[in-house]
Amino acid sequence: MRVLAVLGVALLVACSHLLFPFIRTGQDLLWGRAESAVTRAVEESRRMVDEAIYHTMKRDLSERDSPSPSQLLSFSKLPEPTSRAVSRAAEIMEASVQAVKTRVYGKLGRSQPPTDVLPEDVLSTIANLSGCLPHMLPPTCPDTCLANKYRLITGACTNRDHPRWGASNTALARWLPPAYEDGISEARGWNPHVLYNGFPLPPVREVTRQVIRVSNEAVTEDDQYSDLLMVWGQYIDHDIAFTPQSTRKVASEGEADCQLTCKNQDPCFPIQIITMRDYIPKVLGPEAFQQHVGPYEGYDPTVDPTVSNVFSTAAFRFGHATVHPLVRRLDASFREHPALPPLRLQDAFFSPWRVLKEGGLDPLVRGLLSRPAKLQVQDQLMNEELTERLFVLGSSGMLDLASINLQRGRDHGLPGYNAWRRFCGLPALETRAHLRTATANASIAGRMMDLYGHPDNIDVWLGGLAETFLPRARTGPLFACLIGRQMKALRDGDRFWWESSGVFTEAQRHQLARHSLSRVICDNTGLPSVPPDAFLVGRFPRDFESCENIPGLNLDAWREVLPQGDACGLQGGVDNGDWALCGEPGQRVLVFSCHHGFRLHGPEQVACSPRGGRFQPPVCRDVNECEDAAQPPCHPSARCRNTKGSFRCECTEPYVPGEDGTTCVDSGRLPKASWVSVALGALLVGGLAGLTWTVVCR
Question: Model's pTM, two decimal places?
Fold first, then answer.
C-alpha cells in the first residue's frame, strides 16, 4: 500500500506545474529521446512486477497444504479485483520511477533532478503507461434521484466537488509530509548507515523484544470495559482503514523471498452511530472527545473524510495492546464452560470450524460481554500470542504483530513521534526526563531511549502507546488527538451522516438514536439478556437486562405508502437489472440500474407521467470483459472466456488458476492427456510383450 501513497504524492507534485520544469531550449529533441527510454523502463517494470506476482502465486499454490504465518496473513488481505488492479498499477509506477531515476537520466548524460521527484511530463507519462492515471482521475458521478438520496457502496461521489474524497481504492491522506530515506519509498531504517539525530534506527524486532513483548501471564485486566471494546475497535478499523498487502512478495524467480532472507532487498524487510456515540468517547475520554470531536454542527463540504496514514497505520492500532491472550467461552450462566475451555489466540486464528462444532457464537459473545479487556499498561504492551505466535498453525514460522505495526509505519513514511506531537500542538520531548514524564514509567522510557537514542526517532505507534492515559480514557494525548481528528473528519465530511439535515426524517433520527450494540446482540444471538451498555464489563445477572427491555428500531418510520391512484411503476421489471421509485408525490421518477457485469443502454432515470402510461424501459446488456485490450481481466497465461454478467479465466492442464483467479500457475501434476498417454503406452508395451512371447514359444 505504500506505493499507493507514493503515487498520490508524486502525482500531486506532477500536477503542480511549479517544480522541475524542463528548460525549453532543445527540450523537444531531448525529451524525444527520454520518452522512448521512459517507455522502455515502464514496460520492463511491468514485466518485472507481473513476473513477481506470478511466482508469488505459484509458491503459494505449492505450499497451500502447509501455509506459513506470512501466507495466512497474505490470504486474509488478498485484495478484490479493483484493489488488485490499483495495487499492481502503483507497483509498476514505483518500479518505473526508480528505473527512470537510476538508468534513463544516466544514459542520457543528464544529472538527476535536484530532488527525488521527476519532472512533471516524465511523471505524467509514467502514470499513464503504468495504468495509474485512470485510478487517479475523478469518477463519473450519477446524477439521479437515488444518488442524491443514498451513498454509493464505494463511498465515491459523497462530496460532489471532490468525488474521490473518502472513497475506497484511493490513497490514504497525509497530514504530514512523508519521511522516506530516498524521498520516494525507502522506509526509515532501510539503510543502516543513515543516522537520525546521530543514531541508527533500531530493528523493529529488537524493539519488540526489549520494550513491547511480555508473557501471556503478565496481563492486567481492565476493571471498567469488556472485551467487546477491543473487538469493536478491530471491526471498525478493518472496515474504514483496511489496506491490501503488496501483490508481490518475491522480487522475481530466483531472487529474494521476504520470508527466507533478512536482506534489505525490495520488497523485503525483516520484520457509525454506535462508534461515535458509545465507543469513541470511551477511548478518548470525555474531555478529549469534546476538544477533538465536539458536537455535530452539520455537513461541511470543505472537510476531507479520507482516512489518514497515521490513523490507519499507527493511532487506531492502539487496540492491539488491549488484546487478551485468551478467548473466553462461557455457558448460559456466564461461568466457565466445562466442555469449552478458554482458547489461546493461536488456537483460534483461522479456525472457523470451532464456531460450528464448539457451541456456536453464544459462548463467545457471553465471554466478550462479561470478561474484561486487557488493560494497556506500559510494561505489558503486547503478549506472546501476538508477538511470537501470530497465525501459527504448525510448528514452523512465526509472525510478530508488534514488529509488523512498527514496520508498517516506516513503510508508509510516517515521521517520528515528536513530529506528530508538534502536529497536535503538544510539546516535543527532548530528553530522557521529558519522556519519563510523558510515560510516567522510568523503565520503559529508559529502554526506549537506549534503543532510539533520541525521542524524535521513536516510531509514532510505540510513542503513542507508551503515553499515560488521559482522564477516563484508554489513550494518551497524542492518540486522542489523532483518532479524534480522524473521527471528526469522517463525521463532518460525510454528506450522508445520519444527523445531517435532509438525510432522515425527525422520526427516523429518533429511532436511530434508540439503537445500540446491546440491541444488535439481542437481535442476532440466542442471549435473552445483555448489559444495557455492551462496552461496560458486566457481572451476570446483576448488570444484565432482559432483551425485552432493550430499546429497538421501529422500522415503521421508514414505511413508504404510495398514494391512491399513483400509476407510476413498471410491470415486469428489467432483465438483469432493477428499478426503484424515488422522489416526492407529483415529482416521482423511475431510476434504473444494472446488475454487476451489465451496462445500461437507455435513460438512467425517467419522470413519471401524472396519468401513468407506457414507455420503453432501458435494457441491460452483458459487458464482454474479455474485449478490454487496455486492461485485460486475465493474465496472459490464461484464456479469457466471457460469461453472462462476468468472465472466467481458463487454464490448460497442468496449469490451474492462482489465488487471484486470473493467472495460471503450474500445479506440478501431469495433465490428464499425459496419464492417457502413459496408460496407452503401457497397454501397447504389454501387448507387444505378449505377442513376442507367443511368437518365441511357437
Answer: 0.83
- Cell numbers 534489505: residue: 264
**Residues paired with residue 593 on neighbouring β-strands, in sequence order:** 578
Q: In this structure, what C-alpha cell is assigned to residue 475?
A: 489513550
Q: Rounded to whole angstroms, what are the CA distances from 32 to 385, 582, 654?
A: 57, 55, 45
Determine the Cα–Cα distance for residues 521 and 534; give it in Å rounded to an integer: 9
DSSP state of 170: S
Round to whole Å and give the CA distance between 592 and 605: 6
C-alpha cell at 243: 489496506
Letter string b/e over residues 3-25, b meaning 16 or more CB atoms within 10 A of that residue's CB? bbbbbbbbbebbeeeeebeeeee
State pLDDT tens for residues 616-663: 889 999 999 999 887 788 988 899 999 999 999 999 988 888 877 888
Is 454 annotated in a binding site? The answer is: no
Q: Residue 166: what pLDDT?
A: 92
Question: In sequence order, which residues have a C-beta less than 8 Å from that of residue 556 and are 6 or more positions away?
Answer: none
Find, among 409, 448, 406, the residue nearest to 431 by Cα: 448
Contact partners, residue 140, CB within 8 Å, separation at least 6: none
What per-residue confidence (pLDDT) applies to 349? 87
Q: What is the pLDDT of residues 204-237, one digit of tens each?
A: 999 999 999 999 998 999 999 999 999 999 988 8
DSSP-based three-state secondary structure for 549: helix
Instruction: Provide the pairing of β-strand 577-582 with 589-594.
Output: antiparallel
Torsion of CA 93, 95, 101, 105, to 10 degrees: -80
**Amino acid letter at 82?**
T
Per residue, what are the HEC states of 352-406?
Answer: CHHHHHCCCCHHHHHHHHHCEEECCECCECEEHHHHCCCCCCCCCCCCCHHHHHH
pLDDT in tens, 17-52: 322 333 333 344 344 566 788 888 899 999 998 888
C-alpha 618: how far from chain center: 37
Please report, rounded to a whole number, the percentage of residues in the chain having pLDDT higher than 90: 52
Q: How far apart are CA 289 and CA 435, in angstroms?
A: 24
Residues tagged active-site = 238
Helix/strand/coil (H/E/C) assignment for every residue in 568-626: CCCCCCCCCEEEEEECCCCCCEEEEEECCCEEEECCCEEECCCCCCCCCCCEEEECCHH
